[in-house]
Write a structure and sequence with these properties.
336 residues; mainly alpha; 13 helices; 77% helix; 0% strand
Length: 336
């Protein structure tokens, strides 16, 4: 309350900094006396406030917000390391994790449009999550680490340090997916998690590429450059290779069906990029795909009802488009 009143009365920056130290000390003292870390959260919050006042208003580093962002990141790393020490009780460990999250959030906010600094912050977060997994063996930490690495890469690519061309973005994210999957062969205990991360990461990359390629095609006056087209399309082929490899490595149920679906989808996507409008190029593979699925369901799983539905869809895709195409003046060869 004293700090808020002092701020409201527009006292000097130095006095604001000194007032911010009061709740830091009282929060830490209350936590120590009452043996409860809940009071320590006050210290964390006002440490952020005091550091901001000291750097931005006392030292006037407004033009270099990245310095403050790096300070917050450093605080987060230190308190996280303290929380990982052996013998740390659960409440204090949770306090350290939450405080680390607050420092990293403050770092991201302060960095604002400085993409390089934000990228470094998320990269450091990924490192801490990896350390958390090593210490506590929580698989969720690996998934969060993968998310942070992707966000870090997303901020890094357009930064002034890299200035990567946007058409090459899918290749960078695909390389990250491949790196996750390949690393699974070296870390046996985390093998399944890393493989899952690699496939999911590539699936998201492919979906994003498909969305952006669709936006590119939605404008009649704009056609994607050949390089842009192939980099977007390459994500589909990489996804197909990863899922196909995963089927042969892990023999997971239905992964072969998923791989075949990606093969067909990438084939159609490729036709779309080549501006091929001939209907049979689309309907024939789709029809055969459903017929093969029906056959496999019948032979492998004895699912007669599902097989009949798949066969009906497959035959429909073969017959119905051909019937309508044959009605045109130049459609004499379609029945053949």
């Amino acid at each position: 309350i004293v700090f808020i009143l002092g701020y409201a009365f527009q006292i000097s920056s130095g006095e604001q900094f000194l007032l911010a130290l009061v709740p830091i000390a009282t929060g830490a003292g209350a936590a120590f006396i009452r043996k409860s870390v809940q009071f320590a959260y006050i210290s964390t919050i006002f440490t952020i406030v005091a550091t901001w006042i000291l750097t931005m208003q006392v030292f006037h580093l407004n033009t270099h917000p990245q310095y403050l962002a790096h300070i917050f990141t450093s605080f987060g790393v230190v308190i996280f390391a303290v929380g990982l020490q052996k013998g740390t009780n659960k409440d204090f460990g949770n306090f350290c994790k939450i405080s680390t999250s607050l420092f990293f959030l403050a770092s991201i906010i302060v960095a604002n449009v400085n993409l390089t600094t934000q990228s470094i912050t998320f990269a450091m977060g990924a490192v801490l999550l990896l350390a958390l997994y090593i210490a506590e063996k929580k698989k969720e930490a690996l998934y969060a680490m993968a998310l942070f690495l992707n966000i870090s890469l997303l901020f890094l690519l357009p930064s002034y340090k890299i200035k990567a061309q946007i058409e090459y973005y899918p290749l960078y994210f695909s390389a990250l997916s491949i790196a996750f999957y390949v690393s699974s062969f070296f870390f046996k205990k985390e093998s399944d998690v890393l493989k899952n991360i690699g496939i999911v990461n590539q699936l998201v990359t492919t979906a994003g590429s498909l969305v952006f390629s669709g936006q590119s095609h939605s404008f009649s006056y704009y056609r994607p450059r050949p390089t842009e087209s192939m980099t977007y399309l390459s994500t589909g082929y990489i996804l197909t290779v990863l899922t196909g490899l995963d089927y042969f490595v892990r023999r997971k149920a239905n992964m072969d069906y998923l791989t075949s679906f990606f093969v067909l989808s990438t084939y159609i996507w490729h036709l779309w990029y080549l501006n091929i409008s001939e209907t049979l190029y689309y309907s024939l593979p789709i029809g055969l795909y459903f017929l093969v699925l029906g056959f496999l369901r019948e032979e492998r799983h004895n699912e007669h009802d599902n097989a009949n539905i798949l066969n009906l869809v497959g035959n429909g895709m073969l017959i119905i488009p051909t019937f309508f195409l044959a009605q045109s003046n130049s459609g004499w060869f379609y029945p053949v």
